[in-house]
Amino acid sequence: MLDLAAPEGQPLDAVHLGGGALTLPRYLAVTRPGSRQRVVEIDAALTDLVREHLPLPRGARVRVRAGDAREALESLRPASADVVVTDVFAGARTPAHFTTVEFAAAVARVLRPGGVAVANVADGPPLRFARSQVATLRQVFAHVCLLAEPGTMRGRRFGNLVAVASDTELPLADLSRACARDPMPARVVDGADLDRFAGKAAPVTDDGAQPSPEPPAGVFGR
Questions:
Q1: Cβ distance 186 to 179 under 8 Å?
Q2: Which end of the chain is more exposed for a tag (fewer CB within 10 A), N or C?
Q3: Domains in the chain, CATH or no CATH each
Q4: Angstrom distance (rounded) from CA 118 to CA 166
């Protein structure tokens, strides 16, 4: 989705909620030189370790801030980003306050017209959490799709799904082709298929939010 967010090579203003090893910021720095990127990672020790052992590319315009990613998001200027990537986990679960309509609205406020929100959603059978996240995003954004490896999308196993949302139409045909030719092919679900996937799932709000599900024992070799 980052490859399709703007014409090839055009710099982006990107916000990354959750930093980890700064993998996506590195990717954007190389594929879209000149991109201005802000990263919020609550684990400052992890960021220090990453900087020591995996230095960022020379010239990368990446600023990393330690703190709660939602609080940092809410402090950003309106219409200041082209892309907001949410990849926040406490252990193996997404904290509850990153799963709500109020959080999605905060993301939308920071995005420019035509901007894209991308979120990592971890779930397993029967995908209740993923369905609720689709319903939540649809409360805020006019256009939503979901990407996942087919077995995960069918609820056969625990895994990661990627939710994509925008106030303008998404490049679904190009996205489907890119996902199909990937070494780990994924399916893109939108429109009526996404209606069926979401079913009667209700949007999540701050007053009733729960973290994403705990992965089954052994999923990550534990």
A1: yes
A2: C
A3: 2-196 (3.40.50.150)
A4: 9
Distance CA 44, CA 205 (A): 29
- On the question of pLDDT at 222 being above 60, the answer is no
pLDDT of amino acid 221: 58
The answer to whether 216 and 158 have CB atoms below 8 angstroms apart is yes
Provide the residue type at 185 as one letter: P
61-66 and 143-148 strand pairing: unpaired
Residue in this structure with the two tokens 């779930």, named with its chain if needed: 123
Preceding peptide of 213 cis, ω within 30°:
no
Scan for tokens 């973290």, then name that residue. Answer: 211
CB of 64 closer than 8 Å to CB of 47: yes
Q: For 4-38, what is each residue's pLDDT tens digit?
A: 999 999 999 999 999 999 999 999 999 999 999 99
Q: Which has the closest alpha carbon to 143: 169, 174, 177?
A: 169
